Amino acid sequence: MERSLAIIKPDAVERGIVGRIISRIEKEKLKISAMKMVHLTKGEAGRFYYVHKDKIFFNDLIEYMSSGPIVVMVLAGEGIINKWRQIMGATDPAKAEEGTIRRIYGTDIQRNVVHGSDSSESVKFEVNFFFSELEVENGA
Ligand code: CMP
């Protein structure tokens, strides 16, 4: 079964919109196979986002991602990587389609509320980064 790693980012947790985002995930009938809240250190955020280490926004990104707790989830289902990306909308909330999570709740290109894996290669790394096999529901 295909998986995607989803994150509800610190700005969303801080603003108290975790419930609304999970509700949207359930309304869309996506399957949540694992979920927990964690507070990353800067080092951990840097390791998670290492693919962006040479980008100009890297330091701001890890500062932001370690600024407060986040909710991490494993979503599972056919075509889930693309499905979740469509429901999130484009990285920049201003460019995201009407009705997407980032368009509705996003503040700017950094504080864009949610994350989703962008490919099956990144899923493996991202799911293993946060979850052991024991924590992910069997078969998902
Ligand atoms: P995400 O999908 O989690 O992947 C990388 C994150 O870096 C992205 O969401 C944004 O939070 C952030 N990001 C991407 N592009 C920029 C940018 N141009 N300026 C600032 N932050 C960015």
Question: What's this entry about, in short?
Answer:
This protein has helices at residues 10-14, 18-27, 42-48, 58-65, 80-88, 101-105, 120-130; strands at 3-8, 31-38, 70-76, 114-116. By secondary structure, the chain is an alpha+beta fold. The model has no long low-confidence stretch (mean pLDDT 96).
Question: Please, could you describe this protein's structure?
Answer:
33% of the residues are buried. With 140 residues, this protein is an alpha+beta fold. The protein has helices at 10-14, 18-27, 42-48, 58-65, 80-88, 101-105, 120-130; strands at 3-8, 31-38, 70-76, 114-116. It is globular and about 35 Å long. The protein has a four-stranded antiparallel beta sheet with strand order 2-3-1-4. The chain has a single domain, classed as Alpha-Beta Plaits. Helices cover 39% and strands 17% of the residues. It has seven helices and four strands; from the N terminus they run βααβααβααβα.
